[in-house]
Design brief:
Layout (H helix, E strand, L loop, with lengths): L3 E5 L8 H11 L3 E5 L12 H11 L2 E8 L7 H17 L3 E4 L11 H19 L5 E4 L12 H10 L6 E6 H6 L10 E6 L28 H10 L5 E4 L4 H4 L4 H15 L3 H5 L1
Parallel strand pairs: 1-2, 1-8, 2-3, 3-4, 4-5, 5-6, 6-7, 7-8
């Protein structure tokens, strides 16, 4: 299989860092995503060198730092935050930083203004990423109030802002399905977030982060079909499990259930090279 698996900190934000790394090893993941909104690894007073050493000792890599919020609402404070995250990513060996758009249902930005603000943020970020070995992973979010829902918007903004040298897309299978997006650009993916939806009844747009669980048969978000399409396009990056459901996070058998979900994906998303042989 061309891609590798990672665990986002959302899998178990309550676990101490060492136990989270042990969880990743138990599930067979190759990496972890460190967040600045849960877990306490960033900004918690632990030296980055110590975090990196613990990753190396566990045989894991940092798949990304998650996230620079409101990247399309640019300001001096946003620039300072971006610079600090880039420095942290370099210290931890993370290849990218997830860039999340403003989510605010009260905003009344026109489509033109929303596009202009995405371009403004990316143009300001480009020189900060240049030469660092770290990329900005632009993540469309499909919830109500998101100022960047569809991948085409992100692609157009990156290309208008100078191209892909310092940027890639972060594809979220749930967000893609929730907003009814149909245009996918896997040739530009640098990270893939996955989570399954088992809750029957509500329309996709009525679901929210706490509905995001693991991937098993009956998944409404179509993770297997999306991953088959992504892998067939040649994607070779990380597929990171990003559940938000409390019943997953607090599951006393979380390690075995995560491992089973990873195995399910591994078995149901065939390697196109094998299929062609």
């Amino acid at each position: 299989m061309a891609f590798t698996f990672a665990l986002n900190r959302t899998c178990a934000p309550q676990l101490p860092w060492g136990e989270f790394l042990a969880l990743a090893r138990q599930t067979g993941a190759a990496g972890v995503e460190i967040r600045n909104d849960m877990g306490g690894e960033l900004g918690g007073g632990v030296p980055l060198a110590q975090i990196r050493a613990s990753l190396d000792a566990a045989g894991l890599r940092c798949a990304s730092l998650n996230a620079l919020q409101r990247f399309n609402d640019w300001s001096p404070a946003r620039a300072a935050e971006a610079q600090a995250l880039i420095a942290a990513a370099q210290a931890l060996g993370a290849p990218g930083i997830v860039l999340c758009p403003v989510v605010d249902p009260a905003l009344d930005w026109s489509p033109a203004e929303a596009q202009a603000r995405i371009c403004e943020g990316l143009a300001a970020l480009r020189p900060l990423f240049e030469g660092t070995g770290v990329k900005g992973l632009v993540e469309p979010l499909g919830m109500a109030g998101s100022t960047l829902k569809h991948q085409l918007m992100a692609v157009a903004a990156v290309e208008a802002s100078g191209g892909w040298r310092n940027f890639a897309l972060c594809h979220d299978t749930f967000q893609f399905w929730r907003c009814g997006d149909t245009q996918m650009f896997p040739e530009h993916f640098g990270m893939v977030h996955v989570s399954g939806i088992s809750r029957a009844g509500p329309a996709p747009e009525a679901l929210s982060e706490p509905d995001r669980g693991l991937i098993f048969p009956g998944d409404r978000a179509g993770n297997v079909a999306q991953l088959r399409r992504i892998l067939a396009a040649g994607y070779e990056g990380a597929v990171s499990f990003e559940p938000f459901a409390e019943e997953v996070q607090r599951d006393p058998r979380l390690a075995s259930h995560l491992a089973a979900s990873i195995d399910y994906v591994r078995l149901t998303v065939p390697d196109p090279a094998l299929a062609a042989s």
